[in-house]
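Before a computer can learn anything about folding, someone has to put a protein's shape into writing. The three-dimensional part falls to structure tokens, numbers that each stand for a local backbone shape. The protein below has been through that process, and both of its lines are reproduced in full.
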Amino acid sequence: MMSFSTGIVASFSQNCTQFAFQSNIAQKNSIDVYPLDEANNYKINSSLVSHIDYENNDLDVSSILFSGWCSNGIEQNLTKSKRKRDDQNGDINIQSSESFFVNTFTDGKIVVFSSNGKNIVNIIQNKYEITHTDTEDSFIWILDSDKAVKKFNFNQTKPVKTFHLTDGKDEDITGFQVLKTNDNEPLLAISTSNFFYVIDPSKRRPTTYSKLEVGNAVSSFLLPDNTKIIIADENCISLYDLESTSKLKSWEVKAKRLIISDTLIISLTTDGLISVVDMDKKDIICNVNAPDSKIIEFSVVGANVMLAWLNVNEPNFDVISLNKIKSKNTIVINTNQDINNSLVTEETNTNKSKASDKESVPPEKTKVSKAKQDEMIQDLLEKLENNAPKDEILAQLVSSNWVEDRIKNFIDKYLISPEVTSQLCEVIVSTLQKNPWVNEDSLLIWLEWIILWRGAHLNSSKVKHVSKQIKQLKSSLRSSGETLPMLLSMQGRLEMLKTQAILRKELAELNIEDEYNNEFETIEQGEGHDAMVENEDSLTYANGESDAFYDASAF
């Protein structure tokens, strides 16, 4: 799959053994193919990554309309004979299933690469410009500007089926998808600005299987009974009955792509999360998140979900079991691959705090490594989901590591379930009720942002007791608030009296000192005058000169 809005190519092969990726097609004329090995825990080995060089093949990666995968068909057991030295024959069973990387270009060209991208397996040139493409097993389906639908085998240049659209041909087609069925006869989904058409191409003259009033659908998935379909549009995911064309259920999830596994609807959302809903339930049952990153692609393999998330400019991979998804409301992927890169350990922070106290310098803010933050989030979620004792949850909430930004991030991204929200709020409110003057500012920050961002969760009829507790807390705070001005005025008066007493003492000391200084100065001045008179009488002048001045003109 390719995202034109982000310029990212990200696509798992059908058997999840390869992953095609390019983070910036505008600057690089190549795509990387990552081999995926379960035995190696899906870790990236850069030496095994293949690079498809489009420039050497006179191709431009920025002109790619679609990137995806097809296979060489159903796995087959092949038997080879091996002649030994004693002329006995041994049978070797080999399972053959190879993936092929498919690119379609706007000029009508379809290029099929080998699984590692090093070789070109097939090139198909369509007469008209290609507008939409999808793959299904070993087949490539296209829709061109002539409103013609064509089906190609990946290793052939001539189509095995061609027909022109009737419904939707005069409309602006926004989506084209192959819907797999149990009878191996796929249906086609055509999305326009106003309608969603399901077409049966298996007949000699393809017919419209169903027409739904759904505009701008972005992804769809047919249920196994072939009578219902899940459709994701710009605003939500909905379940429709194909025969009656009525909407049966709806979930408020903005999805880019979705896959069905049993009763679970697994979707990649527009904000880079994996949201999972159960068709038998009303709300989201699980959210999978990669902190400070985004999940860019996913696939379901057996009883697991394979995820690819962006680590700077490289993909990283993780596998989560469906059982884990069913049992947890939120799953946080550890996006920190090097736990040893902790900025400051808890022990170091303690030593810094002690040193700063001695020097009377304000302590530095506690820095927490990315791995530690993920651990904090997961630990708090597990305590809330498992109904841990309130004291344990409270100890987690008042930890100095929970600064306001981290609290806001947790409430925004991880506090999704109304049940978990109500439990967290109940712990905070009950603590504040017991002691409204509790000296824990972090609890007030928690409560403030929960009410601002998750207030709707607290209005549910299921959590009436929490709403009642909040009202009681409000009443307690009101009574405390009424006494606060009186206490503050009393405190102000006491401080004023204390200050006045200090001032009186300082003024009294100042008056005594001034009187003493004045007396001392008077005595010194008297003694100085007498000495001056005596000194004047004892003065003698050299050469008969004195200080008297006589005007010579008078004589």
